[in-house]
Structures
1.
Amino acid sequence: MNYESSKKLSDLRFKRLVGVERRTFDKMLEILTVAYQAKHSKGGRTPKMSLEDILIATLQYLREYRTYEQIAADFGVHESNLIRRSHWVEEVLVQSGFTIEKGKVKDTDTIIVDASEVKIQRPKKNKS
């Protein structure tokens, strides 16, 4: 899902798919826009992805733990390009006061583990 398709979503559906409320997303985007303008004030190459799409891709990675390769394929960019841009987004957001934690569990957290069994069809071995 790119930013253009997310505009059509209701606020509730946007939060469910992206992981943050639209107001929070807009605030993040505002911070990234200022940082991007400061970083590229002397010019530079125009990126293939918009800042909105880079932010959505980064939030997808943080929320869903999909591989960068899968997300990059969805957006039509190279994996290394997405990794570089996602790390920049994370750094800028953390420096501006947003909290992005990956896997830190506190004593008060409740963890639910899905340990349901899923049957997999495997090819039968030839007895020769």
Note: Residues 24 and 30 are 10 Å apart (CA to CA).
2.
Amino acid sequence: MSSQKYNCPVDAAICKIGGKYKAVILYHLKSETLRYNGIKRKIKRITDKMLAQQLHELEADGLINRRVYAVVPPKTEYSLTDLGRTLIPILDAMCEWGEQFMDEE
């Protein structure tokens, strides 16, 4: 994408990891490869439609890998790409800030 599509670098970042669950999905994938149902168990409020959409967008943006195994029943795993792993310090900072915010409530 051209840099002209974004107002600033923060806008570019939010376009990739913004949305209701993208950052949460990335956070759960930062330390392990998960199957669809594993992600769904970790994000209890997410609907199947929303999870599928968010995973598709994250894959299209090159932040996660989707690996399908030719077995019965079908098995699909999700993991961070190299680009996705560059977000780990940001996700860790968001986690730390969130912990402080949760403590204040």
Note: The chain has six helices and three strands.
3.
Amino acid sequence: MRSSEFRQKLIPFSSRLFRLAFGLLGNREEAEDTVQEVYLKLWKMRNDLEQYDSLEAFSMSITRNVCLDYLRRKKIERRAYSQSDENNSYDPDPSVKLEIKEKALLINHLISQLPEPQRSLIYYRHIEGKEYKEIEDLVGMKENAIRVSISRARKKLREMLQNQYASWIN
């Protein structure tokens, strides 16, 4: 796909993408950055875009995923820092802060590698702190199925984390 064709087919969605990002993030600058990141992703895959029936729907999905990834990272970092502050009444030195941030980024990266239903369920339960009943209403799954999926996702995350640490040791 050439740049003129890209502009003609994809740029008209920019206001819709911005509204979605702004609705999810609640911050104008972050929403603008997200839309820019989405267009960069789309540009990098411009030669493969012909296979999608609806470029608008595909663009919206990418925008949603980028926003959710950003919110996950932000929440994990905030939670890691607040746990650090609870455990230590002093301000940790920069190496401790860096270690906490790296752990949060690793967990976020591992969560992003989960298959979609598990990724969303982990996000709703552990990042947003929603109750199972709330998640049931959001995703339209039965509570038992949600519990099973989250349990399997946790197990998968544990395995991925163990593999990651094992690869660092070896």
Note: The two ends are 44 Å apart (CA to CA).
